[in-house]
TrEMBL record:
It holds the Pfam family NAPRTase_N. SUPFAM superfamilies: Nicotinate/Quinolinate PRTase C-terminal domain-like (SSF51690), Nicotinate/Quinolinate PRTase N-terminal domain-like (SSF54675). It catalyses: 5-phospho-alpha-D-ribose 1-diphosphate + nicotinate + ATP + H2O = nicotinate beta-D-ribonucleotide + ADP + phosphate + diphosphate. NCBIfam families: NAPRTase_put (TIGR01513). This is Nicotinate phosphoribosyltransferase. Residues 1-22 are annotated as: Disordered. Residues 449-565 form the Nicotinate phosphoribosyltransferase C-terminal domain. InterPro entries: Aldolase_TIM, NAPRTase_C, NAPRTase_N, Nic_PRibTrfase-Fam, Nic_PRibTrfase_pncB, Nicotinate_pribotase-like_C. It is an enzyme of class 6 (ligase). Its EC number is 6.3.4.21.
Amino acid sequence: MTQQNSNKRKNEDNHSSASTPRELKRATTVDYIYNDQESSNGRLKPLNGFVTPLLTDLYQITMAYSLWKNNRHEVSTVFDLYFRKSPFGGEFTIFGGLEEVVRFVSDFRYTPDQLQHIRTMLPTCDQGFIDYLSKLDSSEVTIHAIKEGSVVFPRIPLVRIEGPMIICQLLETTLLCLINFASLVATNAARHRLAVGKDKVMLEFGLRRAQGPDGGMSASRYSYLGGADGTSNVMANYFFGIPIKGTHAHSFVTSYNSVEDLKDKTIVDTQGKKHDLLELALSFRKELGYEMSSMSELVAFVAYARSFPTGFLALVDTYDTLNSGVLNFLCVALALDRLGYKGLGIRLDSGDLSYLSKASRKLFKQVGEKYQLDYFEKFTIVASNDLNEPTIAALNRQGHEIDTFAIGTNLVTCQAQPALGCVYKLVELDGSPRIKLSQEANKITLPGRKDCYRLIGSEGHPLVDLLVHVGSDEKENQQQIPKPGEKVLCLHPFEEQKRVYVTPVKVEKLHHIVFQNGELVNPLPTLEETRSFCLSELSRVREDHLRSSNPTPYKVSVSKNLYDTLHKLWLESVPVKEMK
Ligand SMILES: Nc1ncnc2c1ncn2[C@@H]1O[C@H](COP(=O)(O)OP(=O)(O)OP(=O)(O)O)[C@@H](O)[C@H]1O
Ligand SMILES: O=P(O)(O)OC[C@H]1O[C@H](OP(=O)(O)OP(=O)(O)O)[C@H](O)[C@@H]1O
Ligand SMILES: O=C(O)c1cccnc1
Ligand SMILES: [Mg+2]
C-alpha cells in the first residue's frame, strides 16, 4: 500500500492492512532501553523496553475485540506452547526465555498511550472495549512451565497458560517471540559447547553480526545460558553480568607503521623500575634469529603489552602467523617475563587453525625449553574465524592445540537454522478438551490440560517423557502419575504400534506452577543458576540423543488415558465424507 492510500484509510478499521506509521515524535517516546528490572510498585519488569502488550500481531487485538463483543472473552481456556521439531537437525532443545515471559506477564497492562493507539487502529470499536482493556491485567492467568534451561523435546508443552480466553489470546505472539529465539540460541550454544568439549573455553563474539541490538543482547544472554563461558558484549556484561572477555583487532596492529609510532617505549616492572620494553623485545628477536618478523607488528605488540602487561594476548595473523605474529608474541612475552609479568597467549583468526595451533604450540615449547620457562608451553591459543559446529568437529578430527573457541556469526545468528517453530495452541475451553486437526499427524494438537513426567532409567539417564491428562478429578489425576518401580505403558501419540513399558527408577515432574494470582510463585533463579542447571541436565542425557549426526530420537509418549482422549476426540472431530 502506498503512503497516500494508507493515509486515506486512516479512519477505517485496518485488520489486515498496514496502518499509518506512527509519527516520529511518538516513536521516540518508546522507552527503548533495557529497563530497571523492578518497578517501584514491585511488579517484575521486562528486560527490554519493547516488550509491552503492543509487541504483538494486530490479529490478537482484533480477536480480543470480537471475543469481547460476543461475550466470549471470559470463557476459561488452556493454551500449550510447544515446538514440533528440534532445531539444527538435532534431537534436543534447550528451553530459554521463561524469565522474560514471567516478567512480561507480570507487567501486563495497557498504558493510556497504548490504549489510545489501539483506539486509532480500531476506530469503530466500542469504547467499552477500550475501557475493558484499561483494566485488564494478568491477575487471572496461571502459568505452569518447565524449568528454564531444561533439555526439552518436541510436543511437550514448555509453558501452559490458563485463564480467561481474552488475556491468554493476547499473550500468544509475545510469548512465542520471547521463547523461540531464546531457545534457539541456547540450543545452538549447547551444540557448539558439545562440539568444543568440556575442558575448552567457548566465547561468544557475535554482537557485530547479530540481528540488531535486541538480537545481540538476547544472543549473548542465551548463548551464556546454553554453555558459553563469556561474551565480548559489554552491555551483556553490564546488564546481565555475563563474564566479559576480549583480545584486540587487526586494525590495532595495522595502525602501527614503524618504531617512530611508539612515543613511549617504557614499562614499569613488577618491582617499580622503568625499562625500555621495545629494546628488550628486540634483543630477544636478535637472540632467537627472528629478524624476519614484521617490525610494525612488534611495535604494535609492545604498545599493547605496555598497556596490559598482565593481560597480553596478541592477535598474530595480521601479516604472517608463523613467520611473524607468533615470533613477535614470543619476543614480547620473553621481555615481559624479564620484568616479572607473564604473557597470556595468542589469537589465530585465519588460515588452517589445526595446523597453525599445533605449529604455534611447538614454537612455544621450543622457546620455553630454551629459556627454561615452563609456562610458555601452556600459553592460551584462541581461535576465531567463522567457526561453527562442522568446523569445530573437523578440527577435533584433525587434532589441534586450541584452548579457546571464539564464535561469532554462526552462534548468534543461528545460521544453520534461523528460527525455532514453537506454536501456541488452544487445548481446553470451558473445561472441555479441544483439538486442532491436520493432514499431518505431527501437527495435530494434544488436547486437554497435561502434565509431563520424565522417567529416569537405572543408569540415571532420562528414558521417556510421558504426558498425562490432568482432569478435574484429583483422585484420578493421582492415579495417572507414574511411580518409581512401577511399570507404565508409554504410547506414541499417533502410531499405535509404537509403545513401550517403562519401569522408571526415578520420576521427575517437569511442569511447575510459576505464576498465579498476579504473582510469581517462587523467586526467579539467576542466569548463572539457570546456566548451571542447563549444563547438569545436558550431562544426564544419553550421548546418542545429543550427537550432531544421526542422533537417536528421544521418546515423547502419552499415557493410555491421554491416548484414548486424543483418539476419541480426533474421531469425533473428523467429518465423515459422503460418496455417491
Ligand atoms: N583445519 C581446518 N579444518 C576445517 N576448517 C577450517 C580449518 N581451519 C580453518 N577452518 C575454517 O575454514 C574457513 C577459512 O576461511 P577463509 O576461506 O575465509 O580463509 P581465511 O583463513 O579466513 O583467509 P583470510 O582471512 O586470510 O582471507 C573458516 O571458516 C575457518 O573456520
Ligand atoms: O568469525 P566470527 O565467528 O563471526 O567471529 C568474530 C569475528 O569478528 C572479528 O573480526 P571480523 O570478522 O569483523 O573481521 P576480520 O575477520 O576481517 O578480522 C574476529 O576477528 C572474528 O573473525
Ligand atoms: O575480543 C576480540 O578479539 C573480538 C571481539 C569481538 C569480535 N571479534 C574479536
Ligand atoms: Mg572474520
